[in-house]
Amino acid sequence: MKDGFIACGTLSPKLKVADSVFNTASIQRAMDKGFSEKLALLVLPELAVTGYTCSDLFLQRTLTEGVKVAIAQLLSHSKGHDMVVVVGAPLIFFGNLYNCAVVIQDAKILGVVPKRHVPNYQEFYEKRWFHLPPDDVREVSLAGQKTLFGTKLLFSCTNIPEFILGVEVCEDLWVPDSPSTDMALAGATVIANCSASDELVGKKEFRRSLVSIQSAKLVCGYIYCNAGPGESTTDLVFCGHNLIYENGRLLGEQFLAEDTLLRTELDVQRLAGERLRMHTFGESRYSYTTVEFTCKNLQQTTLTRFIDKAPFVPNDPAMRAVRCEKILTLQALGLKKRLEHTRIEHVVLGLSGGLDSTLALLVSVRSFDLLGLNRSGIIAVTMPCFGTSKRTKDNATSLAEAFGVTLLTIPITEAVTQHFKDIGHEIGNHDVTFENSQARERTQVLMDLANKYSALVVGTGDLSELALGWATYNGDHMSMYGVNASVPKTLVRHLVTHFANEQEPKVQKLLLDVVATPVSPELLPASEDGTISQFTEEVVGPYALHDFFLYQVVRLHFSPAKVLRLAQIAFRGEYDSLVIKKWLKTFYWRFFSQQFKRSCLPDGPKVGSVSLSPRGDWRMPSDASVQLWMDELEGL
What we know:
This protein is α/β, with parallel strands linked by helices. The protein contains 20 helices and 20 strands. It has helices at residues 20-36, 61-78, 171-174, 179-185, 203-217, 268-278, 317-342, 355-371, 390-402, 413-423, 432-453, 463-468, 489-500, 505-516, 536-540, 543-555, 560-570, 577-593, 595-598, 627-634, and strands spanning 5-10, 41-43, 84-93, 96-105, 108-114, 138-142, 145-149, 153-157, 164-169, 190-194, 221-225, 242-246, 249-254, 262-267, 289-293, 347-350, 378-382, 406-409, 456-459, 481-482. A hairpin with a 2-residue loop joins strand 3 (84-93) and strand 4. Helix 8 packs across helix 13 and helix 10 (413-423) packs across helix 11 (432-453).
């Protein structure tokens, strides 16, 4: 359970309607499967002890007495185990029969949660047997133990503080005012639902949407366990549709499942972290009684859930295409609005033939098309110098021709050489001054051209470069509108590729060659054969790793230890642990030391869940110390 991961599962046991002895044995086998998987939480169906479809047999004393025996046997079976079990059973309290979820751990009944909303419509006829629960929490006796009974109970793990369990039963989810809403507002990070939802045409899809939305809007883990095929088929059919969601994301699903464990892990630390940023939790309308429990045998949870090594890029091609189209549209709309507001009909951008400047060009083209402006108002400027390669120069020229924009070629070698003389810098000294002087000269040219043509300078730098500070201060770091400011490098390639796929073969081939070009600032002298000699990822590290780090650190606020652990899983077989750790150290060092560049960024559109705008998502002092983060990494 290290790093906030708790192993959890659902299982629809094989049942015989009204046979509590058979069902108890079946539930015990389900518990054994959970024990063997070292689950922290196992959720079983509604009324699993008897079966949901007992109808008037629920009123038979033989059945209700059998339930008491069953609960006692389940308690005994749980002895010595940390796993929390949530199981449905019909129970009599205060002279009434209630549809309940019993919460058990280590031979103790933590509490009994009755179904708050008892359906009595269409195929449901529960009010014939079950009573509506009282509003308050009361003490009851069950299986020789004193415990609490009520709908306003939460179950909190003392040594995993982010693990707070709320329980609701089937219909409770389907009503407009679900109990889980207030449970989450009161602190519950995980909701267990013991359900018996019959299957109908279209209901599977609706059920999936319902659980997904509830988990997303409550920022919780939602474990939904449904009754399986063992229920009576007199009028209804049950299909064991089990679901586990985390904040709107499907982690596991079963259909037509019986006696098969659905296992995954919830990241309660992540859920708690998300809520810290939102400030809408902790404001429940009701007062909840918290029952504490302890997981005595804490150990690192084996992760079986998918760890996405490219969190900014959808793995599914269809979803990726939709995402790329949406982002290109947002970028174009942002620039369109800025041009409309300023009544400017020209833009200037540095077109190097590399990925980022190509994307900025494509966005500018879309914006001009949306505005009905002539593309000749897009002034693309190539500024060859010491490190410019033939490949990128030719691609820049071809791009300008392909999209009908104005191309200016302004060599800056002489200007930079003169500048070196002015400041007394040896031209053979290829240090940071040698590199940054070129970047600043290019920015000066762009800014002055913008004045000359009454234009707006479009920035080309991306989110990954901003995170690493891989930009020359007041050089490529500066513009009048940064269209790529919230687009990470791993996504830039896919955006250009998506745009390419919509073009004629000649233009498509050109764009795909840009995508295939190694990432380089081209500030050091090119090789003798005119090819690129400076490769960014050899200096700062692979962007695939850095974008992964960026998402985990900025979007999810994970610790270095957790980021390293997840990266080792996500990139297994691609990068070894030492390499990952090396570049993670680089990421933290650069991220902290380069904040001063991000504190004065130009405007740019937010298009995804991560942005480093100092006016929006990310506020950080420029002189913050990275020492705590580095110390944690050194200790791993």
